[in-house]
Amino acid sequence: MEEVSSLYNSKITCPVCESTIEYTKVKSKLIKLLRQDTDFCPWYEGENPIFYEAVICPECGYASHVTTFEKVSRYERSKIRELITPKWKKRSFTGPRDIEKSLEAFKIVLMNLMAMEAEKSEIAKICLRIAWLYRYKGDKEQENRFLEFALKNYKIAFHGEELTDGKFDEYVCMFIIGELSKRLGHLNESSQWLSRLVTCYSDPNQKRHISSRLIETTRDLIQEIKDMKANQHNEEVSTA
């Protein structure tokens, strides 16, 4: 019996060169989430939809996260045509992707974002996904390298952008800065950001904007950091 594919192709118009292109998606009913790390990295059984979030125009080289592919300004289009298209070698990214193909696709997205001088929050989001891909691969050095890039850009975004999206507002940004800081070993900085989020939650005017589940995770992380600091102190005492 022929196995049913979990993938399918969808069509979209490239906003830069106006070509009708195809991109591959995972059938939503076949997506099976197993767990999620505290920085929102998802682990799936079977096909991983993260692999297919980077959409690339095979004609001009324009690339973006699937959720923002059609949102391109006139200035951004001109930058793609100036800096990306002249160097682009036409090739297709449809069909099954492994980690290496997905890494290639996301790095093309990152190049596009840099060329377009995109918002730091969008750059951070792509750096974080690249870090996840390296985590799937088991490459800790490259994972941490891109986590650092993500952290740097999230901090800039927090201080300089209007973060009003329901899925990614200033409170989620505070959390992810604190979480990535912890993950990278910046424990004091992590404590400051996470404690700041808990303080916001204690304000009735802000509380309704913050997920209670996010706060539960935040408090767990704060306790985890306290435990890590205590262990570090005990190790220092024992070796003194």
What form results from the Cα inertia axes?
A: globular
Largest sheet: 2 strands, antiparallel
Q: Oligomerization state of this entry?
A: single chain
Strand line-up across the major sheet: 1-2
Number of strands: 6
Q: Order of SSEs, N→C?
A: EEEEEEHHHHHHHH
How would you characterize the overall build of this protein?
- The chain folds into two domains: 1-157, Serine Threonine Protein Phosphatase 5, Tetratricopeptide repeat, CATH 1.25.40; 162-240.
- By secondary structure, the protein is an alpha+beta fold.
- The mean pLDDT is 94.
- The protein contains eight helices and six strands, in the order ββββββαααααααα.
- It starts with 6 loop residues before the first strand and ends with a helix.
- A hairpin with a 6-residue loop joins strand 5 (54-56) and strand 6.
- The chain has helices at 74-83, 99-116, 120-137, 140-160, 170-183, 187-201, 204-207, 212-239, and strands at 7-13, 20-26, 32-36, 42-45, 54-56, 63-65.
- A two-stranded antiparallel ribbon has the order 1-2.
Features of the shown structure:
240 residues, alpha+beta, Serine Threonine Protein Phosphatase 5, Tetratricopeptide repeat, 2 domains, two-stranded antiparallel ribbon, two-stranded antiparallel sheet, 8 helices, 6 strands, globular
